Amino acid sequence: MKKSLWHRHWPTQNGLPSLGIVLFVLIIIIILLVTAPLVEFNPLTIVKSTDNFFAFVSNLLTVPEWRYVPTLTHKLLETIAMGFLSTVFSCCFSLPLGILAARNSSPLPIIFHLVRNLLSLMRALPEIVWALLFVSALGLGPFPGILALTFVTTGFMGKFFAESIEVVDVGMIEGVQATGANWLQKVHFSMLPQAMPDFIGTTLYILDNNIRSATVLGFVGAGGIGYELISSIRLFNYGRLILIVLAIYLTVTILDHLSTQLRSYII
């Protein structure tokens, strides 16, 4: 049996790492040492800031502002709706784009390259940048946030779906082609059934991610609970902040549990 690259290099006969592994580790260390100053990474800063961190956390041990719960519930539901709607819209757009962006399902090479470049453009910038653009054009509120999430998520889901189609079983495709099926029938009866489990799994992951991303978009006025979160931090309103943090945590935990159960059921 052919040994893997790792076992061919280590352990060696003398029990020491091979020259290739030593050089690889040294290169990684050199890269870390070179890049650390660029991002102002300093372990001493972390140690010195420990007191400030624990002081901030201790401020959260306060009496929650219970009268804020109705507003919190409304904003939290708004955030969940933003994540859900953006995921649904992204599924509708990414499915056809993913088919056109896969090498084995795209009808023409020019279409393949155009759609691939479009998907790269859509996910090139983070959601918050697109949210700033849509807020500038459409005003404050959840609608610009939904558009931003839909735009970026479509780029990611289209790419994932295209890659799932490209690795489907060729034998099933050839079997469908042997019956005289056209391009659309080949995609529908041989490619989509094989790629659909990956598409569903990706959709559940994207739903969870979009709800968390919708929280951040509120920082720039794109709706959701994010605006309430950043306002509470700036105003040192720890009674509201503790409720917001707990609400976000519980929401993400519940959705993660539900998505895991649904994924297991589908599989």
Written account of the structure:
The structure is a single chain. The longest helix is centred in the C-terminal third of the chain and has 35 residues, at 183-217. The two termini are 33 Å apart. Mean pLDDT is 83; it is low at 1-7. The chain has 12 helices and no strands. It has 267 residues and is mostly helical. It has helices at residues 5-9, 19-35, 43-48, 50-59, 69-101, 109-122, 127-138, 142-166, 170-178, 183-217, 226-234, 238-266. Helix 8 runs antiparallel to helix 10. The chain has a single domain (67-266), classed as MetI-like fold (Orthogonal Bundle), CATH 1.10.3720. It is globular.
Write the layout of secondary structure elements.
Elements lengths: L4 H5 L9 H17 L7 H6 L1 H10 L9 H33 L7 H14 L4 H12 L3 H25 L3 H9 L4 H35 L8 H9 L3 H29 L1
Keywords: Cell membrane, Membrane, Transmembrane, Transmembrane helix, Transport
Main location: membrane
Protein name: ABC phosphonate permease
> What is the helix fraction of residues, given as a range?
over 70%
Name of the CATH class: Mainly Alpha
Termini separation (Å)?
A: 33 Å
CATH topology: MetI-like fold
Largest sheet: none
Provide a concise account of the structure shown:
This protein is mainly α and 267 residues long. It has a single domain, classed as MetI-like (MetI-like fold). Helix content is 76%, strand content 0%.
Top keywords for this entry?
267 residues, mainly alpha, 12 helices, disordered N terminus, PhnE/PtxC, transmembrane helix
